[in-house]
Amino acid sequence: MSELIWLHPDCLTANNPAFAKYPQVPSLFVFDEEEIAEEEWTLKRIAFLYETLLELPAEIDRGKVVEKLLARRPSKIVTVSSVNPRFAQYVRALERAVKVEVLAAEPFVDCPANVDLKRFSRYWKRVEPMLF
Amino acid sequence: MMRRDISSREEMASYLAAEFPNAARRDASISPIRGGRLAAEAALEAIEPSRYGFDRNYLDGHVTRLSPYIRHGILTLKQAKEVAFTKVSDRFHAAKFVTELAWRDYWQRLYAVLGRKVWEDREESKTGIPPHTYAPAMPEDVSAARTGLVCIDSFVTELKSTGYLHNHSRMWFAAYLVHFRRVRWQAGAKFFLSHLLDGDPASNNLSWQWVASTFAHKPYFFNRENLEKYTKGKYCRNCPVRGRCDFEGSYEQLEAKLFR
Predict the structure, then answer these.
(1) What is the DSSP letter of A107?
(2) Is this prediction's ipTM beyond 0.85?
């Protein structure tokens, strides 16, 4: 039993904070067959990710994400935050079986989470002064 | 476990087609746009934010094509902004580019709030057309690139073969499908998601809603003059229906034809 880094399609940077914090820990990416079926991905979307993964020190698998991660019997799963609703759903399922550490992704701008999102113009008015 | 010992893109294409037969059945082509950090960094190094600010709406403008890399976190928004600032004498010259990065951040923040509701109308449509009038499915002639409109058919062909479209082409295509063909935006959004390398339900669906006017004060549409200008005539020049296509006319004329 050891730790496992879970890579998902929103955090494929080589500067992944999980790699930085756990440099010796193996990582796994699972092509999510449910997401691929639901969004009806064509092969080029898969190929783009696969080609990206070949440059990363990751094992690659396909199937049901939670099952594949737990099949490795990790003592802990480390990953990077995502706003994809599937991510929260999978983290909840994993947490029933194992400890999960979710690291923050690098923010674009440090503005409060409760910024007004009614229209882009409202958000922009708030963040523009922080960006330049 | 999947293999990692792949020596060429041809081998990759046939290996992945065997591993993902359903995806291959939908469309087995592989994009010339490469995945990976090296390709991402080369694209980032090539950006010209100042020229982007002037001509990004033209199909041959200095667009960056960073979106597939940013969508998957291969590059971060902050990294793209910082590199852009190194390429201009005054940060203001990168303003347009940074605004577009901010759009991505905005869509992601909304996604965190909305989740799967990005598939539902955010607001009522402003077109005056009853919602049930919009067809639920993608018309066959559109998805097969057989509308007879050279621009639209070219967009579909390019999307299918590369997994990428210039933002302006995406807007024209979306306006065509929703307003000229009266198809529900969700059908178009799904079609895009299945092909786009940068496919993201938030950026994609909320932009479709912006065109449809379920997330905007008014619908987005265009006329042939606008398309001809920003494409520099590359589609209209060879179009058999030039001068009598659906997009002919002033904005006032088209508005009267399309909306109530």
Answers:
(1) P
(2) yes
B131-258: CATH topology: DNA Cyclobutane Dipyrimidine Photolyase, subunit A; domain 3 (1.10.579)
CATH 3.40.47.10 fits B31-116, yes or no: no
A1 pLDDT higher than 70: no
Q: Chain A: nearest CA to B249, how far in angstroms?
A: 31
pTM: 0.97
CA-CA-CA-CA torsion sign (A61, A64, A68, A71):
negative
Residues of A in contact with B27 (CB under 8 A): 42-44
Q: How far apart are CA B248 and CA B251, in angstroms?
A: 9
Residue of A nearest to B93 (CA): A132
Q: What is the DSSP letter of B115?
A: G
Contact between A124 and B37 using a beta-carbon 8 Å cutoff: no
Instruction: Report chain A residues whose CB lies below 8 A from the CB of B99.
Output: 124
Sheet containing strand A58-63, edge to edge, reads: A58-63, A27-32, A3-7, A76-80, A99-103
Domain residue limits, chain B: 31-116, 131-258
pLDDT band at A34 (very low <50, low <70, confident <90, very high): very high
State pLDDT tens for residues B87-137. 999 999 999 999 999 999 999 999 999 999 999 999 999 999 999 999 999
